[in-house]
């Protein structure tokens, strides 16, 4: 009987906490209200968008997408976006580590009347996993990616995982 309880516990725990892929993670956490843009599509030279980084300043300093604007998550204000994007029909791409926090910010932008808001599928992790360039606070190319936490870092498969200023 003890074996049955242990087996049941292991089965339930693994199904609740194990993620097989970024697809699985985003299917479980996001609500599908914001369309995705792939890393490949965003990287195309003719893609004209404003890119908003919805992570926090310490994450952005480690690395970010070229020309991304830090808007943060914890203190995000839709009102501040008009400084960067006055035309509510201009395409905006938001991203974070994986695309979870950025979906929340994207939903706020949509609610405020922005009509072309996209969430970068898999966030900066998927961007780096596809070998696209990221830049540090001095705009130098880097392989470092702030992983937010050890748990979330499991989805970064390319680059140096940085947490609290040191490699993990």
Task: Describe it.
The protein has one domain: Oxidized Rhodanese, domain 1 (3-Layer(aba) Sandwich). 32% of the residues lie in helices and 17% in strands. The chain has six helices and ten strands; from the N terminus they run H-H-E-H-E-H-E-E-H-E-H-E-E-E-E-E. It has a five-stranded parallel β-sheet with strand order 1-5-4-2-3. The chain has a three-stranded mixed β-sheet with strand order 8-9-10. The chain has a two-stranded antiparallel sheet with strand order 6-7. It is globular. The relative contact order is 0.17.
Give the topology.
Elements: H1 2-17, H2 22-29, E1 36-37, H3 39-43, E2 50-53, H4 57-62, E3 69-70, E4 92-95, H5 101-111, E5 117-120, H6 123-129, E6 134-135, E7 141-142, E8 144-146, E9 160-163, E10 166-167
Biggest sheet statistics: 5 strands, parallel
What global shape is seen? globular
For this structure, what is the CATH class? Alpha Beta
Total of helices: 6
Distance between the termini: 40 Å
Please bin the fraction of helical residues: 25-40%
- Which oligomeric state applies? single chain
Structural class: alpha/beta
Rg calc: 17 Å
CATH topology group: Oxidized Rhodanese, domain 1
Strand order of the largest sheet: 1-5-4-2-3
Protein name: Rhodanese-like domain-containing protein
Pfam family, one: Rhodanese
Keywords: Signal
InterPro entries: GlpE_sulfurtransferase (IPR050229), Rhodanese-like_dom (IPR001763), Rhodanese-like_dom_sf (IPR036873)
């Amino acid at each position: 009987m003890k074996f049955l309880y242990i087996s049941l516990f292991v089965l339930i725990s693994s199904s609740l906490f194990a993620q097989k892929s970024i697809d699985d993670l985003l299917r479980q956490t996001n609500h599908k209200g914001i369309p995705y843009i792939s890393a490949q599509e965003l990287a195309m030279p003719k893609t004209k968008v404003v890119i908003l980084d919805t992570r926090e300043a310490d994450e952005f300093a480690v690395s970010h997408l070229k020309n991304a604007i830090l808007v943060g998550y914890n203190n995000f204000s839709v009102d501040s976006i008009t400084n960067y994007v006055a035309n509510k029909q201009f395409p905006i791409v938001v991203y974070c580590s994986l695309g979870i926090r950025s979906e929340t910010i994207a939903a706020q932008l949509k609610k405020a009347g922005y009509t072309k808001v996209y969430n970068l599928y898999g966030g900066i992790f998927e961007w780096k996993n596809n070998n696209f360039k990221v830049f540090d606070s001095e705009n130098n190319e880097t392989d470092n990616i702030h992983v937010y936490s050890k748990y979330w870092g499991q989805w970064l498969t390319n680059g140096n995982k940085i947490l609290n200023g040191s490699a993990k």
